[in-house]
């Protein structure tokens, strides 16, 4: 599904990603872990198309297409979804109204008819159950005044509505208590299928108790320095990141 | 060498001739108008360094385009022509002005005269209605602006509206048709509203201009909002790039009354809106909302004042600007809280979004508070569209143009809340959306 080859990226002239190689196949969940400042969020941003980042080299192939040929909205329509670390508050735009616009633009791009109000509401009600989100919240301005947990649940709710092929969760666990974390993870798990894949970016292992990854990669200084299965996450939890840093320094 | 006349001298000479042609010697209006012209001559048009017109050098701009001596040519609007512009509202009053003259035979009136008096402001009306004698040209602070005086001197066939005591009136639409086929035409529409105790009236106004030559409208809306009355006045200023407009709204409020102004400015060469609300009794509410969404070289200057003279009143002002290309927005909001006006709540905010590097905003809140037990606040912001928010919307599959439109519509919509008419709201929403491309 996704093939990242020797990806280099920078922001404001500062090099952040220094040669990322990663392949994600349908049905897989990949966890990207690493200490602060290692480039985890940059990777998520570059994949979603955030314009402040400059791609300096390498390629990303997504479903046979050059990802960098696609604008952010085109990536979304092709099935990429980024759950934001800090979801943006947009005053005056209700989640419902915004999502209706989004869903219909995505449907249009996929050659489907726009959803009418009734079927949209029905669809919404179904997906709301997934993340235990309240109707009242969705009629309010997008994310405005939402608690941290509400914002993250809203992200997963949007993901459920947009039915992406590749979801990228950027530090979705940050700022969540354990109950909220379970709800969010539960939503993600229910959306799992053999045709979809996820990249879960996280600093801590605890999210991975609930969203169990097939692969764990450690990102450090802009490179993937170690890959393994979920046991690598436990190892990191136990030992911290210092031994990785030492290993890298030794090379 | 011939002497070059100043604008004021030209106006003065032209006036003597004009008044003689239109008003008989014994006309009470003639006396009023002659007095107004004298006051105007003494005051003159705003000087280049005038504080009130700081960002809008109006006399220079108008002096270049208009000689003020041009007599309005007869307009060629037919009745069917005018009525084709009416809102699709049958149970409503539709009032037509042509070149500043209220034209009753083109209008469509459903309100019985016992609910709503609709009259041409002429000598006869002045004699019959003591209300008019009491109010016409006498609203507080109306005499402090040269253009208001100019309108008083020059208006002809203005409109008098009286909402009768305790009557809840039908929506009233006012259409200004202006002939812009001859160069440098000037029109002077005038509307006087008397909202009697306990009455309600909702007035909407728009302008239709034919012809692309320069036109100037110097208009006045003056209102007496009596105890417990509610008056709303909404205007759409979606003119042509050849239009100049100086529009004044002056109101005095009685006890427990509510007054709302909603001003939506979209296009013009130049618009100057002067609003002065005298909150002259207890428990009043005054609301001023405005939106200016501009492109090209449009220049819109909103100069507003709310004057709290008595205790326990509330005023709220919200102006928003979306400025693209080389447009310029000016906002000056004054709040006066006089010594007697304890327990005043007065709020003001002005928010602007600049869509281009060459658009300009000048915003100036001005609070003068003499009472000590009041709650007043003001705030102004000027910025660009939030790029992070646009990326967020795009990352959900919404294209860039649509994402911007969503955000700007949301930004603008707050100013529509007090319009209270679906047809007008829909029209404004359409203009906003279409302007966003």
Quick structural summary:
The complex is a heterodimer of chains A (251) and B (437). By secondary structure, chain A is an alpha/beta fold.
Helices and strands of chain A, in order, run as EEEHEEHEEHHHEHEHEEEHH
User: Helix- and strand-based class of chain A?
Assistant: alpha/beta
Shape of chain A: globular
Number of helices of chain A: 9
Strand order of the largest sheet of chain B: 2-1-5-8-10-12-14-16-18-20
Poorly predicted residue ranges of chain B: none
Strand segment tally of chain B: 20
Order of adjacent strands in the largest pleated sheet of chain A: 6-9-10-3-11-12
Shape by Cα distribution of chain B: globular
In the predicted model, the low-confidence regions of chain A spanning at least 5 consecutive residues are: none
Give the topology, please.
The complex is a heterodimer of chains A (251) and B (437).
Chain A: E1 2-11, E2 14-24, E3 29-33, H1 40-48, E4 53-62, E5 65-66, H2 72-77, E6 80-83, E7 90-94, H3 95-109, H4 117-131, H5 135-139, E8 141-142, H6 148-162, E9 166-170, H7 178-190, E10 197-201, E11 215-220, E12 223-228, H8 230-239, H9 242-250
Parallel strand pairs in A: 3-10, 3-11, 6-9, 9-10
Antiparallel strand pairs in A: 1-2, 1-4, 4-5, 7-8, 11-12
Helix pairs in contact in A: 4-6, 6-7
Chain B: H1 7-22, H2 28-43, H3 58-65, H4 79-83, E1 93-98, E2 101-102, E3 116-121, H5 123-128, H6 130-135, H7 146-154, E4 158-163, E5 172-179, E6 185-187, E7 190-195, E8 200-210, E9 215-225, E10 230-238, E11 243-253, E12 258-267, E13 270-279, E14 285-294, E15 299-308, E16 314-323, E17 328-337, E18 345-354, E19 360-369, E20 375-383, H8 387-394, H9 400-413, H10 422-435
Parallel strand pairs in B: 1-5, 4-7, 5-8, 6-9, 7-9, 8-10, 9-11, 10-12, 11-13, 12-14, 13-15, 14-16, 15-17, 16-18, 17-19, 18-20
Antiparallel strand pairs in B: 1-2, 3-4
Helix pairs in contact in B: 1-2, 2-7, 8-9
